[in-house]
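Lab manual, section 2.4: Encoding a predicted structure.

Procedure: take the sequence of the chain (232 residues), apply the prediction step described in section 2.3, and record the output as structure tokens. A sample record is shown.
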Amino acid sequence: MLHTREWGSGDRTALLVHGMFGSSESWTRVGEALAARGFRALAIGLPGHGQSPRDPQLTVERAAEALLRTAGEAGADAPDLAIGHSYGGLVLSAAASRLTADRLVIVDSPTSFPGGADRERARAHYARARAERTRERLLARSYYSPDDAEREARAAEQFDPDTAAAASAAPGGSWPLPRGAVVVRPCPSDDIPDDEAARLRAAGIDVRDVPGAAHTIWYSHFDAFLAALPLA
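Recorded output:
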């Protein structure tokens, strides 16, 4: 079972899946805001992140299976709203056909990745990146509050480079989004450039832009991020 964090006890359920280097705690402000809007918000920590178990054989599919099992145990396998950010969006895309969420939201995330990375090089990359995510360095990014920086620095300390390297070295894959899914992206976006956004829109995906936002949109543009979510 993956570690979960919960806010609220409303009639509607929201499932939240964080990105690489994050944790379930990354969703604190969003979870609190959703709880205030009548949701039971459940954030699930992915393998190798936060207090969730490590997995030296991790693949996107294995992460999706662990997500589905944990959501099922928590009574959230058919949520009203499911949101996945970055790597968490990729995992959520892989789980989408079995999750049966009423509204699926992917935040600045590709739905495919090449895979096949050199595992030792990937591990070294993740270890360096983890070491750089200190509270002081995160605070230097003007959009992080002290509480934000504390949460993300704590997530970095708990992050396991070996688990992440396993996923990067695994074979690649593609998990197309269903029609009607919502994609929220900063504009401009490195992960969803304009040509990809146009392709998604042509495929029936509702792409919503937040101009000038950071990759983790709710940290830099919290109100605009909430406004972009399909909460009605």
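Check your result against the sample. The mean pLDDT is 97.
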